[in-house]
Amino acid sequence: MSLSTLSPPTQVPPNSKPQTVLATDAESSSSPQVSVVIVNYHQWGETADLIRQLGRSTSFATGKVEIVVVDNHSPKNPIAGWLRRRRGVSLRRWSKNRGFACAVNEGCRLSQGEWFLLLNSDMTIREGFLDGVLALARRLDEENPRMGIVGFQLRNSDGSRQWSTGPFPTLWGTLNRLVLPRSRRKYHALRARKLTHVSWVTGCCLLVRRECMQDLGGLDQRFFLYYEDVDLCRRARDRGWTVGYEPSLRVTHHRPLHSRSVAVPMRVLTRHALLTYASKHWPDWQFRLLARIVEAEAMVRNQWKLWKGDYQKADHLAVLKAIASEMATGNSKQARRRLLHFIRKHERNSAPESCLQTIAQ
What we know:
- This protein has twelve helices and twelve strands.
- By secondary structure, it is α/β, with parallel strands linked by helices.
């Protein structure tokens, strides 16, 4: 999916197969300046709650902000009809789960704003947050036109700080950080008081300039889920854009990955994502070494699950072992096909409440 223009199409491309597309508020006197892009996957209730919160802002009420929701093939739900009737909200539904990066790119393509605000559905925003984002975007347009990506202060559900920035992953850093708590393995403790330049910021709440996203061609769709935000920031910096962290704007992120148990399907996705990142940005020998480490890890875990009689998890780990082996030998396309087959099979065989929605947030 090309992001060469990032402008709403006059007609729906044949391969998009949307079930519903709703235009933004035609009564608005001007195009929105910020487009909120939300990817929904089995989380209709949370998505609706977030949209209600966003709808209370002055910026949304005056048409300066629009909301675009892309649904990655969730079950039918009356909330979808409610979204269709909301002014200023657009909804696209897909007939299959195409992954987070692909859904974000589609949401940006359908958007009109000069800035995209990417939000996970499991977020609670403070009063005035959206108005603050709009004010920040205007200030950056005037003062810092090369600031392409901005992240914000995150809080956990209990109000404690949640880290949202970090160094770019390296082989040695990835291995050494395994001794740290999961909440710190990717991140570093940054206590900035003003807008600060950083390496990367997490994608759960991310402001991206349209021109920057267009320059980069959007998120790399080889990432199905995870690490696409780190990759985006790295590519942005490589092309002369700056990445910032703005601590004065705060949101609550309720279910970050590091706060949840690592289910085997989640491990398959995160390991594939890390290997995809490494294949792009690390020396080839380091990438291949990591792939062999992941392959060995999967083999050991697979044997342990077989010994315990947990054959389903053993099968999942066998998939991860095959993916790592294929990537190590340069067959990344086959590894990607295997991952997609694994996801489709897992979705078919899982009850809706236990499907990959626990991974997709």
